[in-house]
# Entry
Amino acid sequence: QVPLVESGGGLVQAGGSLRLSCAASGSIYRITAMGWCCQTPGKQRELVARITTSGRTNYAEFVKGRFTISRDNVKNTVYLQMNSLKPENTAVYYCNASALRNYWGQGTQVTVSS
# Structure
């Protein structure tokens, strides 16, 4: 098991910034990558950003240049720095860990007001 605990969501005005954190515990040695996905009502969950254990990153096109994913291997924590937020970034953001299977956090709400 790989429990994931997220924090950092909230309400921000358009153009503002937020930083999400996701702390992993349990069988962390099995993790090959961690990332963030977002979901809005009636839509499928979609990838926002992902980082592998070697540090390779990939981003969804709609966040490139604005969001940055990073990880602290000592704290077993992944961060998502979100800058220049737009109202369309409003969603529930879920942390994901790829191990023998996918694990998900409980989700944290991000609301961007116009």
About this structure: Residues 31 and 99 are 4 Å apart (CA to CA). The longest strand covers residues 91-98. The chain is about 0% helix and 55% strand. The mean pLDDT is 94.
